[in-house]
Amino acid sequence: MANFIPEDKISEIRNTVDIVDVISEAVLLKKSGRNYIGLCPFHSEKTPSFSVSPEKQIFHCFGCGKGGNVFTFLMNQAGFTFPEAVRTLANRYGVNIPTHELSPEQRKNFKEREQLYAINRQALDFYCNALHKSAAGKNAAAYLNKRGMTGDTISEYKIGYAPQSWDNLLNYFKNKKISSYLVEKSGLIISRKNKNGFYDRFRHRIIFPIFDSSQQVIGFGGRVLDDSLPKYLNSPETPLYNKSRSLYGLHRAKNACRLAETVYIVEGYFDLLALHQHGIPNAVATLGTALTEEHVRRLRGLVGKKGKFILVYDSDQAGIKAARRSIEVFDKSFADAQILILETGHDPDSYIFEFGPEKLVNAAERALGIIPFLIASAIEKHGLSIEGKIRILTDLQQPLAALKDDKVARSLYIKELAERIDVEEAAVLEKIRDASVAKTTRVGQSERNSNRMERQIITMLLQYPDIIPELSSYEVLEYFEDSTLRDIGASILKYEQHAVDHGRASAEIQPKPVRGRVSEIMHFINDKGKEQIVAALASKEDAWDMNGCVKLINQFVDARGSRRSKKSIEKSIQEAEQKGDHELLNKLLAQKQQMAVSKQKQKMSIIYRK
Question: Comparing 579 with 329, which gets the higher pLDDT?
Answer without folding.
Answer: 329
